[in-house]
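Per your request, structure below.
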């Protein structure tokens, strides 16, 4: 009886101090990571575009664990009556195997994934060392502006966006 009196409190203490299972910890991390992306929602227009073109990005939370968007560039030519879309990509931020990924579709034959390696309340960095270019994508919010930087194996490309 004396042994049970000592053993039961020790067992209860050990159970209460145990850390959550790996899947519980990863799930809470990925969900809070998704929640940190609220600043990305909305319509954005590029402020440092080339002449006679405008680039847009649009982001929306489409499910509890997915942000979906699209990026596109239109050429404005006064000799034609309608703007011409010269570039379009589908973009998503999605959790795969308990890790946030930035997915780009419409540029290559297959979609390309960039794994999140850093994230704050106003920024994220993701990488894909196997991709030809870019190898690294970073987004940073400052006031009502986003800086998106594409880098790795080539000149860096900086996109400056303001909320539309």
């Amino acid at each position: 009886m004396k042994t049970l009196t000592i053993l039961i409190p020790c067992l209860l203490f050990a159970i209460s101090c145990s850390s959550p299972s790996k899947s519980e910890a990863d799930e809470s991390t990925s969900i809070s990571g998704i929640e940190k992306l609220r600043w990305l929602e909305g319509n954005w227009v590029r402020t440092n575009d080339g002449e006679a073109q405008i680039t847009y990005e649009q982001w929306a939370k489409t499910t509890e664990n997915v942000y979906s968007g699209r990026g596109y560039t239109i050429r404005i030519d006064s000799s034609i009556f309608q703007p011409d879309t010269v570039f379009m990509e589908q973009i998503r931020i999605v959790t795969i195997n308990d890790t946030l990924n930035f997915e780009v579709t419409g540029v290559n034959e297959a979609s390309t994934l960039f794994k999140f390696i850093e994230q704050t309340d106003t920024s994220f960095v993701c990488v894909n060392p196997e991709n030809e270019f870019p190898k690294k994508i970073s987004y940073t919010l400052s006031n009502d502006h986003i800086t998106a930087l594409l880098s790795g194996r080539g000149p860096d490309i900086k996109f400056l966006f303001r909320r539309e």
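DSSP finds two helices and ten strands in the chain.

Regards,
D.
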